[in-house]
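re: that complex we talked abt at group meeting.

here r the seqs, copy pasted straight from the sheet so there may be weird spacing, ignore it
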Amino acid sequence: KAGVTQTPRYLIKTRGQQVTLSCSPISGHRSVSWYQQTPGQGLQFLFEYFSETQRNKGNFPGRFSGRQFSNSRSEMNVSTLELGDSALYLCASSQVSQGSTDTQYFGPGTRLTVL
Amino acid sequence: AQSVTQPDIHITVSEGASLELRCNYSYGATPYLFWYVQSPGQGLQLLLKYFSGDTLVQGIKGFEAEFKRSQSSFNLRKPSVHWSDAAEYFCAVAEGNTNAGKSTFGDGTTLTVKP
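got the structure back, here u go
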């Protein structure tokens, strides 16, 4: 099976702009989670989508949003970009089957630089 | 709220020496614990996970971890380190074995391997 893919891999934006990142989960996986990784804050949970619904949410401002499509692909959007949004954004997918232990598989990440 | 502490920010070991990376967690119920490895510019790769059963867990690349409930620890070990093990290692905890999609990560431990 193909792994989790994220596009684009690298992105440069300026303050005030908005950005959309895409994540394609492993085939058959229904949950997609997003994490932000920065040197200062480490890995922080943004949100999780399952069956097109946001199932969990981290402590990020409303400028960060996401959605999931019927084929489980997910996008996250950041509006009004700030310098502090520069980070590696990681997507992870998991199968979420009844009665089985869940495991996340991570994509390579999208490196966002805000100038 | 759950939390994870990795006391060692940076560890240096000689190639062929043994390795132990420490992880302490805080979680009220039965934790679902993970160790991941991240190479520069890459996503996270799962090394091993623990939810229940034998408290000594075997993972990929010759790694193992031991869950000690009394010490709230889940330390990662490897008997003989290879130069290719140089990377950053993350311990994580999730709320139950069906909710891996919302994991809390430690700050990571960077491993340097001396020839």
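couple things i noticed - The mean pLDDT of chain A is 93. Chain A is about 0% helix and 50% strand.
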